[in-house]
Amino acid sequence: MRVLFAALASAGHTYPMVPLAIAARDVGHEVHFAAGEHVHAPLHRLGLNPFRPADSFYEIYAEDLGPDLVRLRPDLVVPGWGVPEVAVAARRAGIPALWHGFGRLFPRDIGLVRPDGGRHLDICPPSLQDEDFLAAADRIALRPVPFSEPAPPVTGRPLVYLTLGTAFGTPEVLTTAIRGLAALGSHVVVATGRVRPAELGGLPGNVTARAWVDQAELLPHADLVVHHGGSGTTLGALAAGVPQLVLPQGADQFANAEALLAAGAALRLLPGELSADAVTEQARKAPGLRDAARALAGEIAGMPSPDEVARRLPEWAK
What pTM was estimated for this model as a whole? Predict the structure, then answer.
């Protein structure tokens, strides 16, 4: 069977889909991946046949993908939630489509169009998912499996991991969080994302800052994850059973932080509450979250694996 995945060309949208794409490849399906060139390098390395549809660089419109649907003739199209026009193109071509979520269903006011109807591969544990979506959507549970590009390993415990993702973050927010976390005396690893490490100035001796870390490898060794509330980091930390401190910056991050807070798996500092002292204070409370974090890790572990779902893809291509 030939399966076409499609996503926005960003780590936050493409990487959650990679584990299922790999599993589909491994069970014998022919896999192709439509996305802008920004994410082509890791997809090439994994043998997932990436290509850029028509003139698209980030978003993909129905007209962008139409010629490639004729060329590839996939049996099933798997559009990420961030590319709703891909589902439109599949519908026009008479090809079955299966939405792939990237976390909790996002609020209506963040600049993305919510997916309309259809069946959804849902990687969010039900206890954190939007209640209206749970009640109304046709969902297929899929275990979230962290994926990231390789990077040199990080050692040293206890370990605190700090990231504001690849789309958000400023030197001011990062340096404030670093000052607060360094006061704990733990080894603090910072993934600086869009901020160059040099912009952070001199760092305390127990802080390591890198533009990119292998998050999937790092998270199981962390004692605390301090982050922006992006879906990938949220679910990765939950899968590892690690307490979280969320510093939401925009998009769906405030809703994700609220859901984590309600579940007892995270603490939160809103932008107006952020200071180095507040970060230190909240981080010291984090061990009390571990039981709730581990309970959610157990819920995630019980969800069907990418391999199990990949073997069922032919059912949904009919």
Answer: 0.93
